[in-house]
Design a protein that fits this description.
Layout: E1 8-12, E2 22-29, E3 40-44, E4 51-55, E5 60-64, E6 71-75, E7 79-85, E8 105-107, H1 108-112, H2 130-143, H3 154-163, H4 169-175, H5 180-190, H6 195-215, H7 221-228, H8 233-244, H9 248-258, E9 263-264, H10 266-269
Parallel strand pairs: 1-9
Antiparallel strand pairs: 1-2, 2-7, 3-6, 4-5, 4-7, 5-8
Helix pairs in contact: 3-4, 6-7, 6-8, 6-9
């Protein structure tokens, strides 16, 4: 007899009206929603971004700040919906210093102010399915005009784009027409991490997208290190311990058991991520 099906995590593209501010949407759902609660422990790996997180059954909307280190995440509700901000994207809802949100989860109005106090979509019953919950959350933000992309910091947006293309942090500052010190200070205020740290996180995210190929022996760790932008495999191993909390082989083993069979990171990690789980 098979045991109970595992909870699933699945990513989706966000609606066009929100795409400037958010990079993706995601849904975590328990396999047996009728049981009242599910409990899954999983490893949360830093991605350099904050998230807007809605718990429909608790009617709770929170903001989770960027993570500085890997952490164990325990989800105990049937359904959780999230929108992942782009780096610096929180500025579209608030000018709160992002450095104050590192490794913290706070009520949404603590970041967005009084206008966000009743921002959580009403009617948890209408959010009984993952798709319905995701539609409700995005529609609420668009209908109430709670996100203002015009407030995004153009300097940060330009610098983040340059960092994503393997440009050195110094060159990103030049492209953003500011000094290294100015860019670091601005990143701390708007993104929460330094340009160099964000670049390292982004490089490790590319490693995560390629690890399934190492697990199937289609690609060696050395080739993955080169493809992700590392100068050698040793630096990949260092970042794996720093951001993943494990060696590459240990992380692959954990992901193959608890993540890849049930989770879909295809939007954030790209086409080399494992196939989408069946509905």
């Amino acid at each position: 007899m098979n045991g109970p099906a595992a909870p699933t995590y699945r990513e989706y593209a966000v609606r066009r009206e929100l795409a400037t501010t958010f990079s993706c949407a995601w849904v975590w759902s328990a396999a047996q929603a009728s049981s009242g609660a599910a409990n899954e422990r999983s490893r949360s790996i830093p991605n350099g971004c904050a998230e807007l997180i809605w718990h429909p059954m608790r009617e709770e909307l929170v903001v989770g700040g960027p993570s500085s280190a890997p952490a164990e995440t325990v989800r105990t509700t049937d359904l959780v919906v999230g929108l992942r901000f782009r780096a610096g994207g929180v500025r579209a809802m608030s000018a709160v210093p992002m450095a104050d949100l590192i490794d913290r989860t706070v009520p949404v109005d603590a970041v967005g102010g009084p206008a966000w106090r009743d921002a959580a979509p009403a009617g948890a019953g209408a959010a009984a399915t993952p798709g319905a919950a995701l539609r409700l959350l995005q529609a609420a933000l668009i209908h109430r005009r709670l996100i203002d992309a015009d407030q995004l910091d153009a300097t940060i947006t330009r610098a983040v784009a340059n960092l994503s293309s393997s440009t050195r942090a110094r060159h990103a500052a030049e492209a953003a027409f500011c000094s290294d010190r100015q860019l670091r200070r601005r990143f701390r205020q708007v993104v929460g991490v330094s340009p160099k740290q964000l670049q390292r996180i982004g490089r490790f995210q590319r490693v995560l997208s390629l690890l399934p190929l190492a697990a199937t022996h289609s690609m060696t760790l050395g080739r993955i290190a080169a493809a992700a932008g590392y100068c050698d495999q040793a630096h990949l191993v260092d970042d794996c311990r720093r951001f993943g909390g494990l060696t590459p082989s240990g992380l692959m083993r954990e992901l193959s058991e608890s993540c890849w069979p049930h989770h879909d990171h295809g939007v954030s990690l790209g086409s080399t991520a494992p196939p989408r789980p069946r509905a």
